[in-house]
Design a protein that fits this description.
The protein is α/β, with parallel strands linked by helices. The protein contains ten helices and eight strands.
Length: about 280
C-alpha cells in the first residue's frame, strides 16, 4: 500500500488548507495554513424561537457511547484542533453556509470529524445543523448513541417535515436530522426536490449546515450533493489514505473541493467505519 504524509498531500493539492484533526493528546500539532477558499454565501435569516421547543435527542444509556472528542474531554488537544478549524471556517465565511464533508473512502474518520466540527461551531454560539446524507452507511446517530422517531429518509420522501424530524443535541445550539438504517436506493432521494426544500429550510434557520456526505470513490452519490454546498471539505488520513485515492478523489471533486482536513490519528467509529465499510456501497 502506498500512502501519503503531510508534505505529499501539499504537493498534490497545494492550494488547499491542511488542518490537523486529532483524537488524542499525544504528539505535536502540525503547522497550518490560514486560508480557506471562500465562495459567496446566500442570505440567511436568524432561526426563530421554535428552535427552543425542539425535542432533545434521546440517548438511551445502553446505546450512548462517548465517541466525540468534546464529550471525552473538552480541554483535550483534539478539541483545540476542532476549535481552530471552526475559527478558520467562521473567519473565512462569517455569514455561514452549507459545508459538505466527505472522504476518499473508508477509514478516514469523515463522520467523526463532521460531528466534532459541528460541536465546535455550536460551542462557539453558532446555530448548527447536522444532516446525515451518507444514506447507504449512516453513522451519526450511532456515534451519538441516539435514536430519532423520524428520519431524514422520511423527510426526503415527503412523509414528515424537517420540524418533525429534527432533534437537539445536548444544551448547545446543535441539532441533527439523522438516519438509523441504510437506504437501499439513495440516489432518487438525493435527486428529489425535497432535498432542495430541506436545504433551503436549513439555511433559513441555521448559520451552519454540515452535510455528512458519502465517500467519493465507492459510489457516485456525493456528486448529487456537490452543487448544493458552499464548501466541500475532504478528510484524508496520513499513512492510511492511499495516494491514488486522494488524487482520484480530488479529480472527481474538481473545482468543488475547497479544503482538506488532515486527519493523522487513528480513529475507530463503532458502526460503519470498520474493514467492511465499503461493502455497503457495492
Amino acid at each position: 500500500m502506498i500512502t501519503l504524509n503531510l508534505r505529499e498531500y501539499q504537493t498534490i493539492a497545494p492550494h488547499l488548507v491542511i488542518a490537523s484533526a486529532s483524537n488524542g493528546d499525544a504528539g505535536s500539532p502540525h503547522k497550518h495554513q490560514d486560508t480557506i477558499v471562500d465562495r459567496p454565501a446566500g442570505d440567511r435569516s436568524d432561526a426563530t424561537n421554535w428552535l427552543n421547543m425542539v425535542p432533545k435527542l434521546e440517548r438511551p444509556p445502553q446505546k450512548h457511547r462517548t465517541t466525540l472528542a468534546f464529550e471525552s474531554g473538552a480541554d483535550s488537544r483534539a478539541c483545540e484542533q476542532f476549535r481552530l478549524m471552526q475559527h478558520r471556517l467562521v473567519t473565512a465565511r462569517p455569514t455561514g453556509g452549507v459545508v459538505l464533508i466527505t472522504s476518499p473512502g473508508a477509514e478516514d474518520g469523515k463522520s467523526l470529524n463532521c460531528q466534532n466540527l459541528a460541536w465546535a461551531l455550536a460551542e462557539a454560539g453558532h446555530k448548527t445543523l447536522l444532516l446525515d446524507l451518507d444514506l447507504r452507511r449512516p453513522s451519526l446517530l450511532t456515534s451519538l448513541g441516539g435514536v430519532c422517531p423520524q428520519s431524514i429518509e422520511q423527510v426526503l420522501k415527503g412523509e414528515v417535515t424537517p420540524e418533525a424530524a429534527i432533534r437537539a443535541v445536548g444544551d448547545l445550539p446543535l441539532y441533527i436530522i439523522g438516519l438509523d438504517k441504510a437506504v437501499s436506493k439513495p440516489v432518487p432521494l438525493l435527486r428529489a426536490p425535497e432535498l432542495s426544500n430541506l436545504l433551503k429550510w436549513a439555511q433559513k434557520n441555521f448559520q451552519w449546515v454540515l452535510l455528512d456526505a458519502p465517500p467519493v470513490l465507492p459510489v457516485a452519490d456525493v456528486e448529487q450533493l456537490l452543487p448544493r454546498a458552499d464548501l466541500v471539505l475532504m478528510v484524508v488520513r496520513e499513512r492510511v489514505t492511499r495516494r491514488a485515492a486522494v488524487q482520484r478523489s480530488a479529480e472527481m471533486l474538481g473545482e468543488h473541493l475547497s479544503s482538506l482536513i488532515f486527519n493523522d490519528v487513528t480513529m475507530s467509529i463503532a458502526a460503519g467505519y470498520g474493514a467492511n465499510y465499503d461493502r455497503g456501497y457495492r
